[in-house]
Design brief:
With 388 residues, the protein is of the alpha+beta class. The chain has helices at residues 2-5, 53-57, 59-65, 68-97, 117-128, 143-171, 174-177, 272-277, 345-350, 353-363, 367-383; strands at residues 12-14, 181-184, 187-192, 195-204, 210-224, 230-238, 248-249, 255-260, 280-290, 296-304, 308-310, 312-314, 318-321, 324-327, 335-337. Strands 1, 2, 3, 4, 8 and 11 form a six-stranded mixed beta sheet that branches. The chain crosses the membrane at residues 72-93, 143-168. It catalyses: K(+)(in) = K(+)(out). GO terms for molecular function: ATP binding; ATP-activated inward rectifier potassium channel activity; metal ion binding.
Length: 388
């Protein structure tokens, strides 16, 4: 796997190849379990399902959802069982007609050259897979043999259609395309276009595009309604900043997906301290149509509170080199610290907004500048003569 061989940098994760991503360990307060893992799998266990027969009503989907080992076992057993079943039928036809006994040259059997169950089994395989070695064949002597021949051909075609279709669907599953759709390991919150924004970065490692790609975000947290009902997994949609007005994206190069933290945002009242103390999870879902197969695919990931970096932004990854745009994936998840208000977006709006923050930022010297000024003042005082 790419993530294990070191071919993929540690700055981002593959949606399906991130099983080696270690979860952070916490001291003190226990964190809630993830709803969606970093690799996109949903952390939900379905228990106490009484109507198990519903899965058998949709056999094809059940076969596709099974593990490869179970699917191959069912694939092999379906053919073996059908061969053995019809081998028994051919042997009974031969036994009832007397074909197993030695007869004269004028005797016409139902099926030629069937002398035992082994020969009946070989003839069953020849009929169902249309091998036709030429030694055994059905004659017009027995109507029952003709009927069994027709039935076995129909059953064989049905088994071939179901099992081969199942194998094809498993190999062409949409989640395989999600292997090369990548998300940044961390989300960031900083100022962008004079607004406090929540941002993540996503990209596609393949040259074949994802058509009609859309991105959705949700905040999952525990909440209580005014009536006192506790909702353990309250899913709240959050909107992305897109000038087109929709969530559609053109995913040719890595993109930064931005969510403006405004009054309609579930993150509006959260400060950096509140973010670390609240058990929230931001789920990101990327959907689109695979260009080469036309199958809809989906990639998912999530960000817990401690995976959201306040006061940082992503570094650029795209440069223009000799008339082409080059993407440096080694910088995909890199972020740098930038001046950001250390309060919630609600408190920021109450204090005058980003303009007030920038004015205060320019009027207040940075710690490094203050240290430099202090050192210069000490040097000046040390150079003054005592007589003066």
């Amino acid at each position: 796997m790419l993530s294990r061989k070191g071919l993929v940098p540690d700055d981002y994760l593959l949606t399906r190849l991130a099983e080696d991503v270690q979860q952070p360990k916490f001291k003190g307060k226990a964190r809630k379990a993830r709803f969606v893992a970093k690799n996109g799998t949903c952390n939900v266990a379905h228990t106490n399902i009484r109507e198990q027969g519903r899965f058998l009503q949709d056999v094809f989907t059940t076969l596709v959802d099974l593990k490869w080992l179970h699917t191959l076992i069912i694939f092999t057993m379906s053919f073996l069982c059908s061969w053995l079943l019809f081998a028994m039928a051919w042997w009974l036809i031969a036994f009832a007609h007397g074909d197993l006994d030695q007869k004269g040259d004028d005797f016409v059997p139902c099926v030629t050259d069937i002398h035992s169950f082994s020969s009946a089994f070989l003839f069953s395989i020849e009929v169902q897979v249309t091998i036709g070695f030429g030694g055994r064949m059905v004659t017009e002597e027995c109507l029952s043999a003709i009927v069994v021949l027709i039935i076995q051909n129909i059953v064989g075609l049905l088994i071939n259609a179901i099992m081969l279709g199942c194998i094809f669907m498993k190999t062409a599953q949409a989640n395989r395309r999600a292997e090369t759709l990548i998300f940044s390991k961390h989300a960031v919150i900083s100022i962008r276009n004079n607004r406090l924004c929540f941002m993540i970065r996503l990209g596609d490692l393949r040259k074949s595009m994802i058509i009609s790609a859309t991105v959705r975000m949700q905040v999952v947290r525990r909440s209580t309604t005014p009536e006192g009902e506790v909702v353990p997994l309250d899913q709240i949609d959050i909107h992305m900043d897109n000038p087109v007005g929709t969530n559609g994206i053109f995913l040719v190069a890595p993109l930064i997906i931005c969510h403006i933290i405004n009054k309609d945002s579930p993150l509006y009242e959260l400060s950096p301290a509140d973010l670390q103390n609240n058990d929230i999870e931001v789920i990101v879902v990327l959907e689109g149509v695979v260009e080469t197969t036309g199958i809809t695919t989906q990639a998912r990931t999530s960000y817990l509170s401690e995976e959201i970096l306040w006061g940082q932004r992503f570094v650029p990854t795209i440069t223009e080199e000799e008339g082409t745009y080059a993407v440096d994936y080694s910088k995909f998840g890199n972020a740098i610290r930038v001046p950001t208000p250390s309060c919630s977006a609600k408190k920021l709006d109450e204090d005058g907004g980003i303009a007030r923050f920038k004015l205060h930022e320019h009027s207040t010297p940075r710690p490094s500048v203050r240290r430099r000024q202090l050192s210069l003042r000490i040097k000046r005082q040390s150079t003054i003569s005592p007589l003066a």
